[in-house]
Amino acid sequence: VQLQESGPGLVKPSQTLSLTCSVSGVSLTTHDYWWNWIRQPPGKDLEWMGSISYSGALHYSPSLASRTAISWDTSKNQFTLQLSSVTPEDTAVYYCVRVPEWGQGTQVTVSP
Hints:
The chain has strands at about 1-5, 10, 15-25, 35-40, 45-55, 60, 70-75, 80-85, 90-100, 100, 105-110. About 0% of the residues lie in helices and about 50% in strands. The strands form two sheets. Strands 2, 4, 5, 6, 9, 10 and 11 form a seven-stranded mixed beta sheet that branches. The protein has a four-stranded antiparallel beta sheet with strand order 1-3-8-7, with no helix packed on it. The model has no long low-confidence stretch (mean pLDDT about 95). The radius of gyration is 13 Å and the shape is globular. The protein is an all-beta fold.
């Protein structure tokens, strides 16, 4: 299984951050698989943001739920993250994860 994040590396404050995770080697709809977004701000711990299940069920971190939307395109075997109203505190390396596999991560900086 391979996961690869893609998206802009720089986002302006108040805009929406959008990232895509392209998955190869397994279908998103494989039974019992959960697909996650996790981030790590500089100098801080990993933070789980949310996930989408093999059946399309969604779960979000309570602290981010009001700003987070996860979706998927099963025809492309991709799932996406949207984080709205970003601030510099959303600067982080963002990972897509299907435990135990991780994408390589993508740096997103929020700056004017």
